[in-house]
Amino acid sequence: MTALLQLSGIRAAHEGITVLHGVDLSVAAGQVVALLGPNGAGKTTTLRVAAGVHPAASGRLVMGGRDVTGVGPQDLARAGVCLIPEGRGIFPNLSVRDNLLMMTFTGRSREEIEEVAFARFPILAERASQAAGTLSGGEQQMLALARGLATDPAVLLLDELSMGLAPLVVANLYEQVAEIARQGVAVLVVEQFAAAVLGIADHAAVLVRGRIERQGRPDSGFRTDLSALYLGSP
Ligand code: ATP
Q: CDD domains given for it (predicted)?
Protein backbone atom coordinates (compact mmCIF):
# COMPACT_ATOMS: atom_id res chain seq x y z
CA MET A 1 0.00 0.00 0.00
CA THR A 2 1.22 3.50 -0.77
CA ALA A 3 1.81 5.58 2.31
CA LEU A 4 -0.32 8.68 2.66
CA LEU A 5 1.69 9.86 5.63
CA GLN A 6 5.31 8.95 6.04
CA LEU A 7 7.79 9.78 8.77
CA SER A 8 11.38 8.94 7.90
CA GLY A 9 14.28 9.18 10.31
CA ILE A 10 12.46 11.67 12.53
CA ARG A 11 14.54 13.02 15.37
CA ALA A 12 13.02 15.48 17.81
CA ALA A 13 14.01 17.09 21.08
CA HIS A 14 12.44 18.74 24.09
CA GLU A 15 14.54 21.48 25.65
CA GLY A 16 17.70 20.20 24.01
CA ILE A 17 17.15 16.59 25.00
CA THR A 18 16.60 14.22 22.09
CA VAL A 19 13.45 12.17 22.66
CA LEU A 20 12.98 10.70 19.15
CA HIS A 21 16.04 9.03 17.65
CA GLY A 22 15.09 8.41 14.03
CA VAL A 23 11.49 7.26 13.85
CA ASP A 24 10.27 5.59 10.62
CA LEU A 25 6.56 5.09 10.34
CA SER A 26 4.02 5.17 7.55
CA VAL A 27 0.26 5.04 7.27
CA ALA A 28 -1.73 4.35 4.12
CA ALA A 29 -5.24 5.57 3.35
CA GLY A 30 -7.75 3.15 4.84
CA GLN A 31 -5.24 1.77 7.32
CA VAL A 32 -5.11 1.88 11.13
CA VAL A 33 -1.57 1.97 12.50
CA ALA A 34 -1.06 1.62 16.25
CA LEU A 35 1.94 3.28 17.85
CA LEU A 36 2.45 1.62 21.21
CA GLY A 37 4.99 2.00 23.96
CA PRO A 38 5.51 2.75 27.61
CA ASN A 39 5.09 6.05 29.36
CA GLY A 40 7.51 8.70 28.10
CA ALA A 41 8.59 6.70 25.04
CA GLY A 42 7.88 9.63 22.72
CA LYS A 43 4.50 8.61 21.30
CA THR A 44 2.83 11.99 21.79
CA THR A 45 5.88 13.78 20.42
CA THR A 46 5.69 11.60 17.29
CA LEU A 47 2.04 12.60 16.75
CA ARG A 48 2.88 16.25 17.36
CA VAL A 49 5.66 16.10 14.75
CA ALA A 50 3.23 14.45 12.31
CA ALA A 51 0.78 17.32 12.89
CA GLY A 52 3.47 19.98 12.48
CA VAL A 53 2.97 21.14 16.08
CA HIS A 54 6.44 20.06 17.19
CA PRO A 55 9.44 20.61 14.92
CA ALA A 56 11.55 17.69 13.77
CA ALA A 57 15.26 18.25 14.40
CA SER A 58 15.95 16.07 11.36
CA GLY A 59 14.22 13.53 9.16
CA ARG A 60 11.40 13.91 6.66
CA LEU A 61 7.64 14.16 6.82
CA VAL A 62 5.90 13.30 3.56
CA MET A 63 2.19 13.52 2.90
CA GLY A 64 0.61 12.28 -0.30
CA GLY A 65 4.04 12.21 -1.93
CA ARG A 66 4.75 15.83 -1.01
CA ASP A 67 7.59 16.74 1.34
CA VAL A 68 5.90 18.64 4.17
CA THR A 69 8.85 18.70 6.56
CA GLY A 70 8.79 21.99 8.45
CA VAL A 71 5.28 22.88 7.28
CA GLY A 72 3.27 24.46 10.12
CA PRO A 73 0.20 23.01 11.82
CA GLN A 74 -2.34 25.24 10.07
CA ASP A 75 -1.09 24.26 6.63
CA LEU A 76 -0.94 20.60 7.56
CA ALA A 77 -4.48 20.84 8.94
CA ARG A 78 -5.56 22.40 5.64
CA ALA A 79 -3.88 19.51 3.85
CA GLY A 80 -6.09 17.14 5.87
CA VAL A 81 -4.10 16.25 8.98
CA CYS A 82 -6.24 16.21 12.13
CA LEU A 83 -4.75 15.68 15.60
CA ILE A 84 -7.08 14.71 18.44
CA PRO A 85 -4.98 15.25 21.54
CA GLU A 86 -5.06 13.35 24.77
CA GLY A 87 -7.60 15.04 27.03
CA ARG A 88 -9.94 15.37 24.04
CA GLY A 89 -9.74 19.13 23.36
CA ILE A 90 -13.45 19.79 23.67
CA PHE A 91 -15.00 22.80 25.40
CA PRO A 92 -16.70 21.45 28.54
CA ASN A 93 -18.85 24.52 29.24
CA LEU A 94 -20.27 24.65 25.74
CA SER A 95 -23.10 22.42 24.59
CA VAL A 96 -22.44 19.47 22.32
CA ARG A 97 -24.13 21.41 19.50
CA ASP A 98 -21.93 24.48 20.05
CA ASN A 99 -18.80 22.32 20.16
CA LEU A 100 -19.80 21.05 16.72
CA LEU A 101 -20.93 24.48 15.51
CA MET A 102 -17.43 25.85 16.12
CA MET A 103 -16.20 23.53 13.41
CA THR A 104 -18.03 25.57 10.75
CA PHE A 105 -14.70 27.42 10.43
CA THR A 106 -13.83 24.53 8.11
CA GLY A 107 -16.31 25.89 5.60
CA ARG A 108 -18.77 23.06 6.13
CA SER A 109 -22.30 23.99 7.08
CA ARG A 110 -23.71 23.35 10.53
CA GLU A 111 -26.22 20.92 9.04
CA GLU A 112 -23.53 18.96 7.27
CA ILE A 113 -21.36 18.75 10.39
CA GLU A 114 -24.26 17.62 12.56
CA GLU A 115 -25.39 15.10 9.98
CA VAL A 116 -21.97 13.41 9.87
CA ALA A 117 -21.56 13.57 13.67
CA PHE A 118 -25.02 12.29 14.54
CA ALA A 119 -24.97 9.55 11.91
CA ARG A 120 -21.77 8.11 13.39
CA PHE A 121 -22.60 8.83 17.03
CA PRO A 122 -26.41 8.98 17.48
CA ILE A 123 -26.05 9.53 21.23
CA LEU A 124 -24.61 12.98 20.47
CA ALA A 125 -27.92 13.99 18.89
CA GLU A 126 -29.70 13.05 22.11
CA ARG A 127 -27.18 15.05 24.10
CA ALA A 128 -27.01 18.01 21.68
CA SER A 129 -28.08 20.70 24.15
CA GLN A 130 -26.16 19.27 27.10
CA ALA A 131 -22.88 20.86 28.25
CA ALA A 132 -20.03 18.75 26.84
CA GLY A 133 -18.45 18.51 30.30
CA THR A 134 -21.48 16.61 31.60
CA LEU A 135 -21.10 13.82 29.02
CA SER A 136 -19.60 10.48 30.00
CA GLY A 137 -15.92 10.00 29.15
CA GLY A 138 -16.79 7.83 26.16
CA GLU A 139 -19.30 10.37 24.86
CA GLN A 140 -16.73 13.16 25.23
CA GLN A 141 -14.34 11.11 23.14
CA MET A 142 -17.11 10.64 20.55
CA LEU A 143 -17.57 14.40 20.46
CA ALA A 144 -13.83 14.90 19.99
CA LEU A 145 -13.89 12.42 17.10
CA ALA A 146 -16.98 14.09 15.62
CA ARG A 147 -15.21 17.46 15.75
CA GLY A 148 -12.24 15.86 14.02
CA LEU A 149 -14.45 14.36 11.31
CA ALA A 150 -15.90 17.80 10.64
CA THR A 151 -12.51 18.75 9.19
CA ASP A 152 -12.92 15.95 6.61
CA PRO A 153 -9.49 14.55 7.49
CA ALA A 154 -7.27 12.52 5.22
CA VAL A 155 -5.06 11.65 8.19
CA LEU A 156 -6.41 11.23 11.71
CA LEU A 157 -3.93 11.25 14.60
CA LEU A 158 -5.43 9.95 17.85
CA ASP A 159 -3.67 10.23 21.20
CA GLU A 160 -4.66 7.80 23.98
CA LEU A 161 -8.29 7.45 22.99
CA SER A 162 -8.79 4.88 25.76
CA MET A 163 -7.56 7.10 28.59
CA GLY A 164 -9.78 6.65 31.64
CA LEU A 165 -12.48 4.68 29.81
CA ALA A 166 -13.98 1.26 30.51
CA PRO A 167 -12.86 -1.54 28.13
CA LEU A 168 -16.28 -1.96 26.52
CA VAL A 169 -16.53 1.78 25.83
CA VAL A 170 -13.05 1.70 24.29
CA ALA A 171 -13.93 -1.30 22.13
CA ASN A 172 -16.98 0.54 20.78
CA LEU A 173 -14.95 3.66 20.06
CA TYR A 174 -12.34 1.63 18.20
CA GLU A 175 -15.05 0.01 16.09
CA GLN A 176 -15.98 3.50 14.96
CA VAL A 177 -12.32 4.32 14.32
CA ALA A 178 -12.00 1.19 12.17
CA GLU A 179 -15.11 2.29 10.25
CA ILE A 180 -13.63 5.77 9.72
CA ALA A 181 -10.47 4.13 8.33
CA ARG A 182 -12.56 1.90 6.04
CA GLN A 183 -13.90 5.08 4.47
CA GLY A 184 -10.36 5.88 3.33
CA VAL A 185 -8.85 7.85 6.20
CA ALA A 186 -5.26 7.07 7.27
CA VAL A 187 -5.41 6.61 11.05
CA LEU A 188 -2.43 6.69 13.40
CA VAL A 189 -3.35 5.77 16.97
CA VAL A 190 -1.13 6.19 20.00
CA GLU A 191 -1.85 3.95 22.98
CA GLN A 192 0.05 3.01 26.08
CA PHE A 193 -2.17 -0.02 26.66
CA ALA A 194 -2.12 -2.19 23.59
CA ALA A 195 -5.02 -4.59 23.85
CA ALA A 196 -7.71 -2.11 22.93
CA VAL A 197 -6.29 -1.01 19.63
CA LEU A 198 -4.59 -4.19 18.42
CA GLY A 199 -7.96 -5.73 17.60
CA ILE A 200 -8.49 -3.19 14.81
CA ALA A 201 -4.93 -2.24 13.83
CA ASP A 202 -3.57 -3.33 10.43
CA HIS A 203 -0.04 -2.55 11.51
CA ALA A 204 1.60 -1.77 14.83
CA ALA A 205 4.88 -0.27 15.99
CA VAL A 206 6.47 -0.27 19.42
CA LEU A 207 8.35 2.82 20.48
CA VAL A 208 10.77 2.47 23.38
CA ARG A 209 12.88 5.43 24.52
CA GLY A 210 12.42 7.21 21.21
CA ARG A 211 13.22 4.24 18.97
CA ILE A 212 10.89 1.92 17.07
CA GLU A 213 11.95 -1.46 18.42
CA ARG A 214 9.49 -3.58 16.50
CA GLN A 215 6.88 -3.12 13.83
CA GLY A 216 4.66 -5.38 11.81
CA ARG A 217 1.26 -7.02 11.71
CA PRO A 218 -0.14 -7.33 15.22
CA ASP A 219 -0.24 -11.14 15.18
CA SER A 220 0.50 -13.45 18.10
CA GLY A 221 4.28 -13.24 17.54
CA PHE A 222 4.06 -9.48 17.66
CA ARG A 223 2.07 -9.61 20.90
CA THR A 224 4.67 -11.86 22.52
CA ASP A 225 7.49 -9.49 21.53
CA LEU A 226 5.41 -6.59 22.75
CA SER A 227 5.15 -7.97 26.29
CA ALA A 228 8.93 -8.51 26.33
CA LEU A 229 9.56 -4.92 25.18
CA TYR A 230 7.21 -3.53 27.83
CA LEU A 231 8.99 -5.52 30.49
CA GLY A 232 12.17 -3.80 29.46
CA SER A 233 14.18 -6.61 27.93
CA PRO A 234 16.88 -5.49 25.48
P1 ATP B 1 2.98 9.52 27.71
O2 ATP B 1 2.22 8.28 27.47
O3 ATP B 1 3.42 9.70 29.12
O4 ATP B 1 2.35 10.76 27.12
P5 ATP B 1 4.71 9.46 25.43
O6 ATP B 1 5.21 8.17 24.94
O7 ATP B 1 3.58 10.09 24.71
O8 ATP B 1 4.37 9.31 26.95
P9 ATP B 1 6.05 11.96 25.14
O10 ATP B 1 4.95 12.71 25.81
O11 ATP B 1 6.21 12.14 23.68
O12 ATP B 1 5.95 10.42 25.46
O13 ATP B 1 7.40 12.34 25.87
C14 ATP B 1 8.69 11.84 25.45
C15 ATP B 1 9.75 12.42 26.35
O16 ATP B 1 9.81 13.83 26.17
C17 ATP B 1 9.52 12.18 27.83
O18 ATP B 1 10.76 11.92 28.42
C19 ATP B 1 8.95 13.48 28.32
O20 ATP B 1 9.29 13.70 29.66
C21 ATP B 1 9.61 14.50 27.40
N22 ATP B 1 8.75 15.66 27.18
C23 ATP B 1 7.52 15.65 26.63
N24 ATP B 1 7.01 16.89 26.53
C25 ATP B 1 7.96 17.73 27.05
C26 ATP B 1 8.03 19.15 27.24
N27 ATP B 1 7.04 19.95 26.86
N28 ATP B 1 9.15 19.64 27.80
C29 ATP B 1 10.17 18.83 28.16
N30 ATP B 1 10.16 17.49 28.00
C31 ATP B 1 9.08 16.94 27.46
A: ABC_TM1139_LivF_branched (cd03224)
